[in-house]
């Protein structure tokens, strides 16, 4: 599997990093880039290649805000994972949200409806 | 010569000066003392010669006059003479005059022996014998020898005085020479110091000149850079101004698709519109069409904000108008389906994907009957202090994944007079606030609607605007905000 260079967090884009041992792709922060498709294109490309080479991948998402075009990109990622899931790959999604930020629960539930792969929603309250 | 060495030379010169002054004073004092002693010795010697003569004369007269009375004071004078000799011996002890003085002393002893013998003879009235002694060769010879010795002693003293004086003169000359040397040394050091001071001054002037040159160069460079920066800033400013002018003009165009106040008031009655694009133009817009028996009202959130969002609104507005004018104007679900279909035909996105969320309602103007259909957005109705949220379908409009054959859902809405209805796009619900920038949220929005339901619609708009600004605090707006409210 090829290396993934961590994408640092900015005010309008999340940090994205990969743990090759746990086969986990972490996405955390806020996501409202001026051009979401440009921002997510390399990530989607990498996931596509990763899924072709490995038997498993977990998407660990901890997002506090996502604009609608980012949502579209996330759906594209979900489609890739769903396809791999249909082909028998061990893919899953863990979605973290804060109790005080219920809109992200709504979003997670909407995403969960779209797929049949294991999708865990984890509530945090601190 | 180095400065350090010239300081050494200065110390040396001062030391020599102090030393020579000390030496000179010492020599002067010594010289004076020597002179005084020599004077005393000379006086002593003269006195010895004089007293000797007196003794001899005393005896000669006695023997010639045959009177011992004439020599009555012999012993007194002789004592005086011996005392003087002792004094001279003491005084000359430090000088090289021992030989002369002891010769003098011996001479006196010899004379004295002869004279005493002559005196004894006189007292024994042997005048002739005494006379032959005093006028005899022995005495005369001794006398002569004694006189010569006296003169020798005097000249020896004088000679020594001269020698000493000569030594002292040499000392003084040496001291003078040293003093001159020291002064010359001082002069030389002074010259060195002044040369060094001059060199220092010149170096200072040179350094100052260098510094001022460097400063001028730096200042020149700063000016140059400032000019460059100013030019760059001017260019940026001009560029920004052009862009802003362009966007402000775009806003005028975008605003032209929005329904005017008169139409809104005619159809909705008491109402408000909170329309706040994140940037000057945005992806949100609201839509109103009036027909003889009914009207359509929609809040629409196109993908993106700013200029790309605004492009989307223009397109969506045209497509929606086309659907409403040509296909259907009274069935919200059908309108959404058609909008979805035509949008997907109109926009052939390759690299990107874009669409819209919409809340659309049709209101029958005679019965007040309302039909709502939504794609991603809800209708909120406050009735008798309670809130109902009627959610639209999850299916969005116009995206690649939006199925062309999707059937949207119509909701029949029963309202009572005085009920209030609201549409909001995501913008308000996602407004960041608090430490973690969590969205304003649906719960907070609903609570706000319920709590302020008794207020006039205009007042509600003002209150919502202020609440939102307060919640956002220091954070900046994340998305376009559109809220529409009206009272049935």
Explain this structure to me?
Helices cover 39% and strands 31% of the residues of chain A. Chain A is an alpha/beta fold and 126 residues long. A five-stranded mixed beta sheet of chain A has the order 1-2-3-4-5, covered by helices on one side. In chain A, strand 3, helix 2 and strand 4 form a beta-alpha-beta unit. The N and C termini of chain A lie far apart (36 Å). By secondary structure, chain B is of the alpha+beta class. A five-stranded antiparallel beta sheet of chain B has the order 1-12-9-6-7, with helices on both faces. In chain B, helix 1 (3-65) runs antiparallel to helix 5 and helix 3 runs antiparallel to helix 5. The radius of gyration of chain B is 71 Å and the shape is rod-shaped. The A-B interface holds A 30, 32, 34-35, 37, 41, 64-65, 67-69, 72, 75-76, 79, 98, 100-104, 106, 110, 113 and B 301, 303-304, 306, 351-355, 357, 394, 396, 399, 401, 426, 429-430, 432, 434, 436-439, 441-443, 478-479.
Q: Name the overall outline of chain B.
A: rod-shaped
Order of helices and strands of chain B: HHHHHHEEEHHEEEEEEHEEHHE
Strand content of chain A: 25-35%
Biggest beta-sheet profile of chain A: 5 strands, mixed
What is the overall pLDDT average of chain B? Answer: 89
What is this structure's SSE topology?
The complex is a heterodimer of chains A (126) and B (488).
Chain A: E1 15-19, E2 24-31, H1 36-53, E3 56-66, H2 68-86, E4 90-98, H3 103-114, E5 119-124
Parallel strand pairs in A: 2-3, 3-4, 4-5
Antiparallel strand pairs in A: 1-2
Helix pairs in contact in A: 1-2
Chain B: H1 3-65, H2 74-91, H3 98-123, H4 127-134, H5 137-255, H6 261-268, E1 271-276, E2 284-290, E3 294-302, H7 306-327, H8 332-346, E4 356-364, E5 370-375, E6 378-383, E7 386-391, E8 411-413, E9 420-424, H9 426-430, E10 432-433, E11 438-439, H10 442-451, H11 457-472, E12 481-487
Antiparallel strand pairs in B: 1-12, 2-3, 3-4, 4-5, 5-8, 6-7, 6-9, 9-12, 10-11
Helix pairs in contact in B: 1-2, 1-3, 1-4, 1-5, 2-3, 3-4, 3-5, 7-8
